[in-house]
Each structure stands twice: as structure tokens, then as C-alpha cells.
Amino acid sequence: MEHKFNYTIVGAFVLGFIACLIALIIWLTNGFEKVNTIEYKVVTNESVAGLSANSPIDYRGVNVGKVSKIELNHEDPRYVTIFLNIDVGTPIKKDTKAELINRGITGIVNVSLSGGTPQAGALLPTKADPIPTIQNGPSLARRLDEALDNITKSLTELSKKMGSILTTQNIDNFSNILSNTNAFTADLAGIGGKVNTLTEKATDTIDTIQPKVKEAAAALGEFAKQIQGASKQLEQTTVNVNKTLDSAQSTLGTWNNLGEETNSNLQSILPTLENALYNFSLFMQELEASPNSLILGKPKQQPGPGE
Q: Model's pTM, two decimal places?
């Protein structure tokens, strides 16, 4: 008995299966929900190997969009322009930066956004700039590459300096220094025994001197006591001297008063003495002129003419 197939039904089933498969693929890739996005671009001079269209874009780990396309700058091929579709409402600021981040060891690269402070204004499309440009930050690979370059340069410079230092003459000098150091160490080891002997002798000397030092300290103490007693005597002598000086000053005052009284008496007697001396002088002159007058008296004067 022959089975009859309805090819129309079979064809419709195949077409329906293909349509469902296409719908599933679309749902897995883009989904049916329409999301509004804003287009931005990033200009970089780094390699974009591993980055492709539909690569995810994250902002501090949060998925905020996808890469729409990647183009080489035809005017300056050193730069690559990456176009981004970022979800509406994502806070893209003027100081936001975009970096290329490697994910794992598979070589897949995506765009990661960072930065953005509240004080910075929002970066939005305008008529003059319909596709705003997000600043490009250095990727981890670039930072590592620059760090390795700096390390390589430093090692090269260090190698050159070491080459200039480690010359044959310097190596010989260094060998001489090591030899002298070994000789000095050997001499120092030999001196160690002598140092121990000197230390023992010094200890014995200290033990011998210590009693004498104590005796000297006691003698100094006794001498200090004697000085203290002498200072007390000197203090008493000073007091006596002060008293004597006071008495001398009093005596001088008495003599001064006596001198003043004597001076006043002499002042009153001097005129009388002067008169007496004058009379005595006249008497002597008369006696010299007429010695007999002392016995006979003064001679009588002859009367003058007409008397």
C-alpha cells in the first residue's frame, strides 16, 4: 500500500522551521527589544587587534553598549576611529576616558569607560559635533609597553655605566683593595691577642689605682673642710677690719673738727702776733743803731733851729 505525502504541508513545515531558526538567531544576537543609543567615537593610535563590531562596552564593569564599527583614518593612518553605540542615560562626561582592555588569554578586546566626575559637564551630541569624541586613555598593554621600554633604556644605560666602571685598571684596583683588606683583617686578628693583654693590664692598673683614688678623695674632702674653716676666719677678720676702718674714719672726723677750731683760733691770734713781730723788729733796729740805749735809755733829741 503506497503512502501519499502532502508536499505542501512538508514545505510549510520546513519554511516555518527556518523562520523560527532565523528568529532564534536574531534573538540571541540582538534581541527583539529596541534600545535607544547615542553614537560616540574614540580616536586611538594603538592597535585594535582583537576588537570587532558588536564588542561589548562596559562602564566600570557595567555593560552600557556595543562597538558599531571600526575604521582606519584615511587622512592619517596612524589613528583608528572606533564608533560606539552607548545606551541612552549613560552618564558620559567630558572627562570620561575610553580604554582598550584585554579579556583573558583569548585575545578578545573590549572598550572600557572610566573617569567622569560630577563637576564635569555631560558630553552630548550637538549640531556642530553630532558624534562626540570620548578621550582615549592608554590601555594596559600600552602602559606595560611603555614601562618595558623605560626599563630597557634604564638597563642599557646601567650596562654602559657598568662597562665604563669595570675596566681592566679598575678591576686590578679592586683586586688590590681586596688584598689589602685581607691583609688588614689578618693584622687585626693578630692584634686581637695584644688588645686582650692590654685590657687585662688596664684592669689590674685600675684595681691598683682605685684605693689611691679613694684616699685622694678623702684628702680632698679634708682639705675642703680646712678651706671652709679658713674662710670663716677670713670672714671674721674682714669684720674686724671693717670695724677698725669705721674707728679710723671716726678719728679722722675728730681731727678734722679739731683742725677747724685751731684754724679759727690761729686766725684771731695772727694779727696780734704780726704787731708783736713788727714792734720787735723796730726794737732790734734801734738796738742795732744804739746799743747803749738798752742801759742808758733813748738819747734826747737836739732841738731844731728856731726851737
A: 0.42
Q: Is 4 helix (H, G, I), strand (E, B) or coil?
A: coil
b or e along 186-203 (b: 16 or more beta carbons within 10 Å of the residue's beta carbon)? eeeeeeeeeeeeeeeeee
**How many CB atoms neighbour CB 112 within 10 A?**
20
Among the listed residues 127, 122, 101, 126, the one whose alpha carbon sits nearest the alpha carbon of residue 112: 101
**Under DSSP, is residue 65 helix (H, G, I), strand (E, B) or coil?**
strand
C-alpha cell at 283: 726794737
Contact criterion met (CB below 8 Å) for 93 and 99: no
pLDDT tens per residue across span 174-207: 788 888 887 778 777 777 666 677 777 777 777 7
Please provide residue 41's backbone torsions phi and psi, each rounded to the nearest 5 degrees. -140, 155
Give the other-Cβ count within 10 Å of 50's Cβ.
14
Exposed, middle or buried, 37 (CB in 10 Å: 0-12/13-18/19+)?
middle
Is residue 152 within 8 A of residue 144, CB to CB? The reply is no
What's the angle, vertex CA 23, arms to CA 17 and CA 24, rounded to 5? 90
How many C-beta atoms lie closer than 10 Å to residue 111's C-beta?
27
Task: Quote the cell numbers at residue 46.
Answer: 594603538
If you ran DSSP here, which 8-state letter would residue 303 be given?
P
Cα of first residue to Cα of last residue in the chain, in angstroms, is: 241
